[in-house]
Write a structure and sequence with these properties.
- By secondary structure, the protein is of the alpha/beta class.
- The protein folds into two domains: 5-122, Gyrase A, domain 2 (2-Layer Sandwich), CATH 3.30.1360; 142-432, Rossmann fold, CATH 3.40.50.300.
- The chain is 45% helix and 18% strand.
- It contains 14 helices and 13 strands.
- It has helices at 27-33, 88-100, 110-117, 123-134, 138-149, 151-175, 187-216, 230-238, 281-296, 312-320, 358-370, 387-408, 413-431, 437-445, and strands spanning 5-8, 17-23, 35-36, 47-55, 58-68, 79-85, 104-105, 218-224, 256-262, 265-271, 299-305, 326-331, 349-351.
- The strands form two sheets. Strands 3-4-5-6-2-1-7 form a seven-stranded mixed beta sheet. A six-stranded mixed beta sheet has the order 9-10-8-11-12-13, with helices on both faces.
- Strand 9 and strand 10 (265-271) form a beta hairpin.
- Helix 4 runs antiparallel to helix 5 and helix 5 (138-149) crosses helix 7 (187-216).
- The two termini are 16 Å apart.
- The model is unreliable at 178-182 and 242-254 (pLDDT under 50).
Length: 451
């Protein structure tokens, strides 16, 4: 990390301002070489200076330059931020001048990666930064800022401290057995301690599903036979005419997506092609895609036409997905009922139409109830929120259970100590105390440029 990097930190396009960020040992030297104004080598840290970015004798742009000297910066290195006029040409030209004067173009997430490698943040906080940038709802923002502020890291570190204290006590027992004033560590002593730790980890895993809901939202597939009103329901839910609506069966041939926020949780709603036997090649591709999406969705809204008297095919299709979260929406309830409701008594039924919102309001309430969305507001937001975090906690929990079995089998206490050390190290991977380089490359590659 002896290089000085630069990157555009704002979205590239027309706007009032753009921010170009630099980090590294030569940041202030490089900006001073292309800046017309004060001598930036002599200014105090955390100050802003007016002037021009120059290329030879040509003025490139009128700017404000922020100087932030190590170690009290985001990366703990010298950081310079150039506030220039927004616009693609101007922003790219200043970036070009920086590259021509010794900067290297930053990789995605490289500023945050340097903050992690320099010890300013741990890996959980780094993941929280990425989630904060991509958050689309108030709850996902709260989840991310909690992770950035270290509340989840604190929980993990408390468990690690308990483990290291146990291991230290075991080592003292092994190395100094002659001392009478130390607590004797036996298998019987360790078992309840590990039980308490496993309960804490189980609680983290239990709450992880809420973390996934908050971070990623709920994938909702609207499926059913053709011409039952799926596209109209999508348009009504998102309050936008996104899907084409006609009375011709098979109008929707590909998926149409929309998003809404429900109780602070994102619903990723997918309108699918009507499921039916068809000889039309394009429509058949759409039907196959509908079936695939229904298998992957967190929730299926299965739509049935209230005016349809033959629902044999619907009963069959519902039997194929009965293990999923399903709400059956009986559409067009403002028209004469022909459907045999008794055939659907085992399913969660909501009646409605797209002429008024009463049924759609009931549908939303049912989703809130089904996923306990009203309970999320009553909890803190220190959740595991990524597959990496969850898999490591599961791995830790499984190892603790194996260790508990070893204790029951009267395994030597010094061998138990080895297991405790491994558990401690795996928990350390969650916060990045130990890590593999390819993991970091993958994690930070998902960041935007300039962050």
């Amino acid at each position: 990390m002896n290089t000085t990097i630069c990157g555009i930190s704002t979205s590239l396009g027309v706007g009032a301002i753009s921010i170009i960020r630099m980090s590294g040992p030569d940041s202030i030297k490089i900006i001073n070489n292309i800046f017309s104004g004060k001598n930036l080598l002599k200014v105090a840290s955390h100050t802003i200076h007016y002037g021009f970015i120059m290329e030879n004798s040509d003025k490139i742009d009128e700017v404000l330059v922020s100087i932030m000297k190590a170690p009290k910066t985001y990366t703990t290195e010298d950081i310079v931020e150039i506030n220039c006029h927004g616009g693609i040409a101007t922003t790219n030209k200043i970036l070009e001048v920086l590259l021509n004067n010794g900067c290297q173009l930053a990789e995605p997430g490289e500023f945050t990666k340097r903050a992690f490698l320099n010890g300013r943040i741990d890996l959980l906080k780094a993941e929280g930064v990425a989630d904060l940038i991509s958050s689309e709802t108030e709850k996902s923002r709260k989840l991310a800022i909690n992770q950035v502020s270290g509340s989840l890291s604190e929980k993990i570190n408390k468990i690690r401290k308990e483990l290291i204290n146990l291991q230290a006590s075991i080592e003292v027992n092994i190395d100094y057995p002659e001392y009478d004033d130390i607590e004797i560590i036996t298998n019987e002593f360790l078992s309840p301690k590990l039980k308490k730790i496993s309960i804490k980890l189980e609680e983290l895993l239990k709450d992880a599903k809420d973390g996934k809901l908050i971070k990623s939202g709920i994938d909702v597939a609207i499926i059913g036979k053709p011409n039952v009103g799926k596209s109209s329901i999508l348009n009504s839910l998102i309050e936008e005419k996104k899907a084409i609506v006609t009375n011709i069966p098979g109008t929707t041939r590909d998926i149409v997506e929309g998003k809404i926020s429900l109780n602070g949780i994102l619903l990723n709603i997918i309108d699918t092609a009507g499921i039916r036997e068809t000889s039309d090649i394009v429509e058949k591709i759409g039907v196959d895609k509908s079936l695939t999406i229904s298998k992957e969705a967190d929730l299926i809204i299965y739509v049935i036409d209230n005016t349809e008297d033959n629902i044999e095919e619907d009963i069959f299709l519902l039997s194929q997905i009965k293990n999923k979260n399903i709400i059956v929406f009986i559409n067009k309830d403002d028209q004469q009922q022909k459907i045999k409701i008794s055939r659907l008594k085992e399913f969660n039924l909501i009646f409605g139409n797209t002429i008024n919102n009463e049924g759609l309001i009931k549908l939303k309430k049912e989703i809130i109830k089904l996923f306990n969305l009203d309970q999320l507001e009553k909890k803190d937001f220190s959740y595991l929120s990524s597959a990496r975090q969850i898999s490591l906690v599961r791995k830790t929990l499984n190892l603790i259970k194996e260790t508990q079995k070893a204790i029951q089998n009267k395994i030597s206490i010094d061998l138990i100590s080895i297991d405790l050390r491994l558990i401690y190290e795996i928990l350390g991977e969650i916060i990045g105390e130990t890590y593999k380089e390819d993991l970091l490359d993958e994690l930070f590659s998902k960041f935007c440029l300039g962050k």
